[in-house]
Design goal:
Distance between the termini: 29 Å
Structural class: alpha/beta
InterPro entries: RdRp_reductase_class-2, RNR_2_N, RNR_lg_C, RNR_NrdJ/NrdZ, TSCPD_dom
CATH architecture of the largest domain: Alpha-Beta Barrel
CATH topology of the largest domain: Anaerobic Ribonucleotide-triphosphate Reductase Large Chain
EC number: 1.17.4.1
Protein name: Vitamin B12-dependent ribonucleotide reductase
Shape: globular
Low-confidence stretches: 4-19, 228-233, 701-726, 867-888
Radius of gyration: 30 Å
Catalytic activity: a 2'-deoxyribonucleoside 5'-diphosphate + [thioredoxin]-disulfide + H2O = a ribonucleoside 5'-diphosphate + [thioredoxin]-dithiol
CATH class of the largest domain: Alpha Beta
Number of domains: 3
Keywords: Cobalamin, Cobalt, Disulfide bond, DNA synthesis, Nucleotide-binding, Oxidoreductase
Strand content: 15-25%
Mean pLDDT: 86
Length: 947
């Protein structure tokens, strides 16, 4: 896709030339004289996004233009998140063409201005190729690019920031200010607090220092306030403390102690769910906490020795602690509340390309960006499935050319980018940190018949990652010849070359198992060799080239099945349909995987139908047990073991400049010893950073139904970790609440129903009065009403009851006196139809087939025109018959979605019969799913903290 005309030899054999002459770019996907948009079928769509819980409209824009191949979900997310201009005004973007043009033109103009292209024709080719790749979902820039580039806003292109703070009040207050500015812009930042004196040291005035943990309170309150102003997402921040800081034990305990406070307040009746009215009273909840551990500390843990905590100013040891005991304390805290994670300091700095300019002390909130203080990184991710051919072979040449183009574009963006602080701008322009990565690795492995947790899957992942970063650095070396090396290169030249040789050596050490792995590894070997040769002459343009980010929102933009380095979430997904409605579908990678494994058409269809019904492959007809592992997922019947995630991270980490955003999920039954093993093995495997999350360890998450209380783990000293008892909490109605009474008659049986609501209009109780006091029917209805009321107060969704009780048949049944419900198959059928009409939004009732008389009349008039009136029941019967006759045959594995399901996570809950440990989206109300070290919403693309 690109050739270097500057100093150095390109992969296409272009001759060397004088530095600064720019790049010569060749066409790969496009044709001269034909615009990329001309080869796509476009269509107009209406985007109407509602809150799944109450039916309110969150966003609406009609008539937007997208390619017909883009999914409804991608259309909705891009329209609501990335189109600029006020909705309803002529300035509002209404077509994907406008969005792509806005971004691509800015990159192309900047490339021309800064002499990246050899000729004007090369700039035009660059523009066409970049447009084609974005249009066809081959890659995506990170969200800030889509938000800001080409608009009147500051041209911020980075999603990842690292700040710094010193041991002065001025610096600490400036930390609050800088962090606030970054949060206000929708991004996140991380920093290391270890320069701040501990609470065990003296100030110059003679008093005792407050310590970093005390200043964390102020930063946490600031982040919570800014989050509350934005309302749609929590502030994303990372706080790091070195393991030798004298306040390390207090730091480790901060969130653990607050989690215990949450439990006490919850049990006392306070609303402590995420977004709850009372959760704001709890501290330290707006940051991820990580401890920077050293090899010295980990070896002390291994040997059971002592470890010295050092004063910040003099670096003298002021206290010695039992290393194993401190490590145990970290594991216990993580077991109980998921924090702290670990960052492995010596490993991180051993792979540092610019050590002469300063150590790497911190990371961004998701831990994938690791570089100098006061710096930033812009990200882009490739969609790996776009490079998998129908024959199951990975398109090495196409992938290489794509990496070349994307790295070139990413580097160009630094030329015109704006930054939140002058210090960040100065460092980023001097070191030009980039973060190319990928999404859909899990889907690619499954589609090629590889288990995620297998030597073959890890070898393939390692080879592809090595090819990506090797190509990126080779292109960076060519850019250095065409434009110039990064400003900090001369000072760090020896260290940079050493790290390049480490990457190349790791590539040579990949143990391939199949011909495809070896082919990709060999291609990566050539990229590393060429990059080392060109870099020896030119230097490199970028101090960093690659990271593996969560790819939450942009993963949906590219219609990816899996995010970042993650495996598939589950085998069956929730999918919205064009024109409305939803289906549950078996992942399209499943039949592709079965074909790759040698199964025939009828076998594949039977297996896919089994998966659609059960959500897993165990005992699927005709599927060999040795192939079960190929279909293992992050969640479900055959969830991948925690150490399987660590092994995959270890396989790809040597080929990533930064680190990997990933949280290792552990089952609720996991012990503190399991957490210790994960943290210890991650260090030995060469990972740079890691966090764990044990299911149901946090109160501020939806609670699992049908599970036993949390397990109890005992420490080596005999101290017992608090047992976590996960029971739903009853939300009682206030003493004075609104209510409504309806009188009814079903087949002559009369009664009254009173429905009481919470002040926010959610139904909280019902009372049904029938027959005389003391009669059997009256007693049964009293007990029934009481059971329903208590369940509603414990959080059972109303629509669940409606779906279960409508159409229930028993006497009395027949005509009613209600014009909206003319016939009822039982009293219970009538009651819940009436409740649905009074308390559920239209969208939910439409899925259940429950309409008022006026709504049915309007439907008939709309569908059939004004005709002689027919009984409503006849019309409904005709509609059902016509709909059934016109419905096309569905392919295997496609079923109508349950009306109570709004996301793949909720679909998995339905299949497993227990609640998933994930937060609800604050924008649209659906349950989110994991993406790297945060969560992302399938419905609207919102994230829990990562861009």
């Amino acid at each position: 896709m690109t050739e270097t005309v500057g100093s150095g030899t390109s992969t296409s054999g272009a001759p060397d030339g004088a530095a600064g002459r720019g790049l010569s770019i060749t066409r790969v996907h496009t044709t001269e004289g034909v615009h990329p948009y001309d080869g796509v079928e476009w269509e107009r769509r209406d985007v109407v996004m509602t809150n799944w819980r109450d039916g309110s409209i969150n966003f609406e824009q009609r008539g937007v233009e997208f390619p017909s191949t883009w999914s409804v979900n991608a259309t909705n997310i891009v329209t609501s998140k990335y189109f600029r201009g006020a909705v309803g005004t002529p300035q509002r973007e209404s077509s994907l063409r406008q969005l792509i043009d806005r971004v691509v033109r800015s990159y192309t103009e900047a490339g021309r201005t800064h002499a990246y292209f050899a000729t004007p024709a090369d700039a035009e080719i660059f523009s066409d190729e970049l447009t084609w790749m974005l249009l066809h979902q081959y890659f995506s820039f990170n969200s800030p690019v889509w938000f800001n580039v080409g608009t009147a806003s500051p041209q911020q292109v980075s999603a990842c920031f690292i700040l710094s703070v010193d041991d002065t009040m001025e610096s600490i207050l400036n930390w609050y200010r800088e962090e606030g500015l970054i949060f206000k812009g929708g991004s996140g930042a991380g920093l290391n607090l270890s320069r701040i004196r501990s609470s065990k040291e003296l100030l110059s005035s003679g008093g005792t220092a407050s310590g970093p943990v005390s200043f964390m309170r102020g930063a946490d309150a600031s982040a919570g306030t800014i989050k509350s102003g934005g309302a749609t997402r929590r502030a994303a921040k990372m706080v790091v403390l070195d393991v030798d800081h004298p306040d390390i034990a207090e730091f480790v305990e901060t969130k653990r102690a607050e989690e215990r406070k949450i439990r006490v307040l919850r049990d006392a009746g306070f609303d402590m769910d995420l977004g709850g009215a009372d959760i704001a009273s709890v501290q330290y909840q707006n940051a991820n906490n990580s401890v920077r551990v050293t090899d010295e500390f980990m070896r002390a843990v291994q040997s059971g020795g002592q470890f010295g905590l050092r004063a910040r100013m003099t670096h003298e040891v002021i206290e010695s602690v039992d290393a194993k005991g401190l490590f145990r304390q970290m594991a216990e805290a993580a077991w109980e509340c998921a924090d702290p994670g670990l960052q492995y300091d010596d490993t991180i700095n051993d792979w540092h390309t610019s050590p002469e300019s300063g150590r790497i002390t911190a990371s961004n909130p998701c831990s994938e960006y690791l570089h100098l203080d006061n710096s930033s990184c812009n990200l882009a991710s490739l969609n790996l499935m776009k490079f998998l051919g129908d024959d199951g072979r990975f398109d090495v040449e196409g992938f290489t050319r794509s990496v070349e183009l994307v790295i070139t574009a990413m580097d160009i963006s630094i030329c015109f980018a704006d930054f939140p602080t002058p210090e960040i701008g100065e460092t980023t322009r001097a070191f030009r940190q980039l973060g190319i990565g990928y999404a859909n690795l899990g889907a690619l492995l499954m589609a090629t018949g590889h288990a995620y947790d297998s030597a073959g899957g890890q070898a393939l992942a390692a080879a592809i990652t090595s090819l990506m970063t090797g190509t990126a650095y080779r292109r960076s070396a060519e850019l250095a010849g065409a434009v110039a090396p990064y400003d900090g290169f001369a000072r760090n030249a020896d260290a940079h070359r050493r790290v390049m040789r480490k990457h190349a050596a790791a590539n040579d050490a990949i143990r391939t198992l199949h011909r495809e792995d070896a082919r990709i590894r060999d291609a990566a070997t050539k990229q590393w060799q060429d990059g080392l040769d060109i870099g020896a002459r030119n230097g490199w343009r970028n101090a960093q080239a690659s990271v593996l980010a969560p790819t939450g929102t942009i993963g949906f933009m590219m219609d990816c099945d899996t995010t970042g380095v993650e495996p598939d979430f589950s085998l069956v997904k929730f999918k919205k349909l064009v024109g409305g409605g939803s289906m549950q579908i078996v992942n399209q990678t499943v039949p592709r995987a079965l074909e790759a494994l040698g199964y025939q058409g009828e076998q594949i269809e039977a297996i896919v139908e089994f998966i659609a019904e059960h959500g897993h492959v165990v005992d699927a007809p005709g599927l060999r047990p040795e192939h079960y592992e190929v279909f293992d997922c992050a969640m479900g019947e055959r969830a991948i073991a925690p150490m399987g995630h660590v092994r995959m991270m270890a396989a790809v980490q040597p080929f990533i400049s930064g680190a990997i955003s990933k949280t290792v999920n552990m089952p609720e039954r996991a012990t503190v010893e399991d957490v210790e093993e994960i943290y210890f093995e991650s260090w030995k495997s060469g990972l740079k950073a890691l966090a764990i999350y044990r299911d149901n360890c946090k109160v501020g998450q939806p609670l699992s139904a049908g599970k036993t209380g949390g397990s109890t783990a005992e420490s080596t000293t005999g101290a017992e970790v608090a047992t976590t008892d996960h029971r739903p909490v009853r939300k009682r109605l206030p003493k004075k609440r609104p209510s409504e009474t309806v009188s009814f008659a079903v087949a002559g049986a009369e009664g009254y129903m009173t429905a009481g609501s919470y002040p926010d209009d959610g139904l909280g109780e019902i009372f049904v009065k029938m027959s005389k006091q003391g009669s059997t029917l009256a007693g049964v209805m009293d007990a029934f009403s009481m059971a329903i009321s208590i369940a509603l107060q414990y959080g059972v969704p109303l629509e669940t009851y409606v779906s279960k009780f409508v159409n229930m048949r028993f006497e009395p049944a027949g005509m009613t006196d209600d014009p909206d419900v003319r016939m009822a198959t039982s009293i219970v059928d009538y009651l819940f139809r009436r409740i649905a009409l009074d308390h559920l939004p239209y969208e939910k009732r439409a899925q259940l087939g429950i309409f008022s008389a006026d709504e049915r009349t309007a439907q008939v008039a709309n569908d059939y025109g004004q005709a002689p009136a027919a009984p409503v029941e006849v019309v409904e019967e005709l509609r059902t018959t016509v709909d059934a006759a016109d419905e096309p045959a569905k392919p295997a594995g496609v079923r109508k979605a349950d009306i109570s399901v709004g996301s793949s996570t909720e679909l998995l809950e339905l299949q497993q019969g227990k609640a998933a440990d994930a937060p609800l989206c604050l924008t649209c109300g659906t349950k989110m799913r994991p993406a790297g070290s945060c969560y992302v919403c399938e419905g609207c693309g919102s994230t829990s903290g990562c861009s």
